[in-house]
Design brief:
By secondary structure, the protein is mostly helical. The protein has three helices and no strands. Helix 2 runs antiparallel to helix 3.
């Protein structure tokens, strides 16, 4: 049932992003720490090994996390 897996992954990502934003908004973690956590997660997937299919999945996950970092999706950065 790939649809259920996709939906579960999207839900988990949304929840995690909301939690990260809340931690930053409430000053529980500074932006630098949040970015560091995301970079660690990205590196874990970038360096994962396995079958070709597994490696492709990990690279896609790493790319998504990298977009989150560069796009600022998980940290509210001041405009200007």
């Amino acid at each position: 049932m790939p649809d259920q897996t996709d939906h579960a992954g999207m839900a988990a990502l949304s929840i995690c992003e909301a939690l990260i934003l809340a931690m930053n908004d409430h000053k529980l973690l500074p932006e630098q720490e949040i970015v560091g956590v995301l970079q660690d997660a990205e590196a874990a997937h970038e360096n994962a090994i396995g079958s070709k299919a597994e490696e492709q999945t990990h690279r896609a996950v790493a790319a998504l996390i990298n977009k989150m970092i560069s796009g600022g999706n998980s940290v509210r950065r001041p405009q200007g």
